[in-house]
């Protein structure tokens, strides 16, 4: 596969080529926000990361951070272990990127990355390369519906699903059966969508028993593909208002997540602001030449 990931085949569904993007990771793309490491990468760079690891037969764990996960990681040892194991940590939060920019970091709107931001690019790649894609999660029947709908659009992608309603306890018979099913399928990509922090806990607990593939925590991704959940319009994400759209649709479930949890991150935000001030004061200044 060409590293450019700009397809030229007759089957490509995109009307125009994607804009150029970086082919190598930068030292300064990994930064710390609210006390946690994140990677300032574009969706195209996430796809390049996946494609290279799949081509080389190497395992990679791709995570994402938003304000909810930044709240949970402070309380859950399993979440901490998961993010420590991740090779790439996307930023799934426009407000978080805006905060990064105010801190003098490189955060830009195009660094917002989540499944819904790169799903079309991913499935186009999976279709063209014939990837085996397995999804674990969702209610019984949801995955099958999602796989059927995706298969109609991307017939060359080999898709298998397994619902997430099973005993994830280490050593349980159900967990062993799921691991055996994953191993037998030998996926190039494994999506795990069981909600935070369950999906992260399952991945990190079973990482040594999972195949060498790309492993991603994706939440309700296949619920969206099956049509059982409605994704927020992408323009709300670009404006940083996706949280408001989702809160308006499901206030009972999301009020605490969006209106209460973020306040616990205030001390970390203040520390980030203090660190940014220290960086600015320590930065060398360019001397002004006479007459300039």
List keywords for this structure.
292 residues; alpha/beta; 6-stranded parallel sheet; two-stranded antiparallel sheet; 13 helices; 46% helix; globular
What does this structure look like?
With 292 residues, the protein is α/β, with parallel strands linked by helices. It contains 13 helices and eight strands. The strands form two sheets. Strands 4-3-8-7-5-6 form a six-stranded parallel sheet, sandwiched between helices. Helix 1 (43-56) runs parallel beside helix 5 (115-129). The chain starts with 29 loop residues before the first strand and ends in a 10-residue tail after the last helix.
Task: Determine the mean pLDDT.
Answer: 89
Low-confidence stretches: 6-13
Radius of gyration: 20 Å
Strand content: 5-15%
Q: Helical percent range?
A: 40-55%
Question: Numbering strands along the chain, what is their spatial order in the largest sheet?
Answer: 4-3-8-7-5-6
Largest sheet: 6 strands, parallel
Instruction: Count all strands and give the number.
Output: 8
The helix/strand class is: alpha/beta
Order of helices and strands: EEHEHHEHHEHEHEHEHHHHH
Total number of helical segments?
13
- Gross geometry: globular
Ends distance: 51 Å
